[in-house]
Amino acid sequence: MAGMTLALALKSGGLEVALVERQPFDDMLDVSFDGRASAIAYACFRQWKALGVGDVLEKHACRMDEIFVTDGHLPGASAPKPLPFFLHFASEEISDRTGDEPLGYMVENRQVRKALYEEIVNQGIRLISPASVVDNREDGSFAEVDLDTGETLRAPLVVSAEGRKSTLREKAGIKHINWAYDQSAVVCTVQMEHSHNHVAYEHFLPTGPFAILPLNDSRACIVWSETHAKAKALMQVDDQLFYDHLIGRFGEFLGDLTVVGEKFIYPLGLGLAEEMHKGRLALLGDSAHGIHPIAGQGLNLGLKDVAALAEVLIEAARLGEDIGTDLVLERYAKWRRFDNVSTSVIMDGFVRLFSNGNPLLRAVRGVGIGLFNKVPTLRQFVMEDAGAATGDLPKLLRGELV
Amino acid sequence: MTETLNSLDSGSAAGFSIDEGEVSRFSALAAKWWDVKGEFAPLHKFNPTRVKFIRETCLDHFALDYRKRAPFEGLQLLDVGCGGGLLSEPMRRMGFTVTGLDASEKNIGTASAHAAQGGLDIRYLNQTVEQLAESDEVLYHVVLTMEVIEHVSDPEAFLRTCASLVKPGGLLFVATLNRTAKAYGLAIVGAEYVLQWVPKGTHDWKKFLMPEEIRSFLDGTELMPEPPVGVSYNPLTQEWALSDDTDVNYMVVAKYPVTAVL
Fold first, then answer.
1. How far is A141 from chain B (nearest CA, A)?
2. Which has more confidence, A163 or B75?
3. B251 assigned ligand-binding residue
4. Which residue has the higher pLDDT, A336 or A341?
5. What fold characterizes domain A2-67+94-178+269-398?
6. From the list B37, B48, B92, which residue is nearest A326 (CB)?
7. Does residue A325 sit at the B interface (CB-CB below 8 Å)?
8. What's the whole-number mean pLDDT along residues B18-41?
9. Residue B146 assigned as binding residue
10. What is the Cα–Cα distance from A368 to A256, expressed in whole angstroms?
């Protein structure tokens, strides 16, 4: 999704783009391909608006106006009472700076792919699919990429938006550090009896976070992290048993629930590339940094990469620079490195702090969260940061074309 | 080494042909010139600032669309003293039809080799501007002479020849170093001796030119020089930027009073 957004952004700045996609597009748009939904920071949504997909996506996007974070507990007779502390974020608190924008939007990934795909076709961007990269090399002022279709592409720059497992990154010899968590996320969509009123909930359970993310039509996307073994078991149990476990965590405050569609399972991990570019290759999104989806920041980081890389490349191209040189790509890396690494590390810390049933740690984080809640400026900063509106913002994140 | 000043009707945009045996030597030199972290690193850092200035001045003067990738298509540009092609290449990518001149055969070979690697059609000529003015009738919408005039023996005659090649309605860009104490300290002592950005002896302070001199050299030509624009280095951000300080590096644009002639 970051790759498709980049293609549109570069095209909007007058660059010529070819997009190589491994999966046939029809498969990717099918419900069974990806059941996930993504939290999109408001600044990232502005970028989509600037690129002409905002109107379509707005219909499918559910505003997220409030987020409640609780330090949860597993249900059961012997379970401790929930601590009185919880975090509350509300878009109202920063509305004077954001002009009534929500904290973010929830959109189903397949809707995002569909909207981006249609705009890519609309813009006449060259799409080579299904195809994958078998080899790449450099020849003077060009990078060359061999595809499994037999075709060789030549361009001053290649961008890998392949996701965490990146062939181009490996072939370029960029080192990649991986940490796997002993957690998988079970993802499904539920239909609720009552409306969620645009509120997202994140319960930090000892086995991992359990998130209820609002979707349109009184639906919600559930991201349920468990140990690998438990997550696998959840995938195999019958519908009734799954429902019993689900309602135990979800609670009954929004009435009855119905699971709609399929369940999906994704292993969780953190992956960081040591460099964001090498030679005529630049890494984008999860190819450079795959993070824990604990606060919905993964795709946002990728979309922020897009805005920075597009601006750097478009401006370099307008100055007649060779867009594949270290000089140009280092501007992109400099712009993005700090945010990517710090976000990854903070999210990693969150997972370790919260995925823990130790009573002392629970008390400490309870007090911490309570204090955090009482300091509005800190909370407002976190909201704006999660909304991708802090720092030296690329034009696209301000909703402007380069 | 054969060296031909082939005419434009040969169909090839390159005006300089490299002997087969010389290709590897020039390619090695090109690799040096174009290594952004190598010997010419300071020039690569400096380049985007002056390129941006040229681009914006030309967009404004010729009333062109800044969002276009190659807005200058159809316009002729002459790069006098092109060196390894550090300006000629970006100018070509912006759409200009580019002729690069250099008195050094080595530089022209280097520039030709690099342009060929990148598939850029630039006409490089191993000539002085005086030779070009005598042999060629072509006039240019834009003439650049960037960091060159402080190296020639008769700067006034040189600049007047450059000015004579500007098409009515066009622009002349001159960049050089000011003959001030500050320039001596920064460009000679600082850049050559302390930081060693450029080899010792690259510049002769006595040959640096004051903005008034540039202005007076153009007296009697149709070109009207604008006030000089400074280019300053910020040691904290390690970046170059345009500034009001013309004591060291500066640029002057001279314009034809009427653009309608084009």
1. 5
2. B75
3. no
4. A336
5. FAD/NAD(P)-binding domain (3.50.50)
6. B37
7. yes
8. 75
9. yes
10. 33
Q: Domain locations in chain A?
A: 2-67+94-178+269-398
Tell which of B69, B98, B120 to mutate to test the A interface (max A CBs under 10 Å): B69
Is residue A344 within 8 A of residue B71, CB to CB? The reply is no
The strand pair at A104-108 and A62-64 is best described as antiparallel
Q: What are chain B's domains?
A: 24-255 (3.40.50.150)
For residue range A276-321, what is the model confidence (pLDDT) as tens digits? 999 999 999 999 887 766 555 678 889 999 999 999 999 999 999 9
Is the model's pLDDT at A367 over the cut of 70?
A: no
| Chain B interface test: which of A319, A326, A395 (most B C-beta within 10 Å) | A319
pLDDT at site A154: 95
The distance of B142 to chain A (nearest Cα, Å) reads: 16
Question: Tokens standing for A15?
Answer: 């660059």
Residue-wise over A118-157: b if at least 16 C-beta within 10 A, else e?
ebbeeeebebebebebeebeeeebbbebebeeeeebebbb
ipTM of the complex: 0.77
**Residue A320 to residue B92, Cβ atoms within 8 A:** yes
* A-to-B residue pairs, Cβ atoms closer than 8 angstroms: 46
* pLDDT digits 0-9 by tens, B117-174: 889 999 999 999 999 999 888 999 999 999 899 888 899 999 999 999 999 999 999 9
Question: CA B4 to CA B123: how far, in whole Å?
Answer: 12
Share the mean pLDDT of chain A.
83
| Residue given tokens 């087969």 in the structure block | B20
Q: Which amino acid is at B105?
A: E
Residue B154 marked as a ligand binder: no
On whether any CB of chain B is under 8 Å from the CB of A326, the answer is yes
Nearest-CB residue to B67 (from A14, A325, A326): A14
Concatenated DSSP letters of B98-117: EEEE-S-HHHHHHHHHHHHH
Report the pLDDT value the prediction gives residue A211, as an integer from 0 to 100: 87
Partner B contacted by A313 (CB < 8 A): no
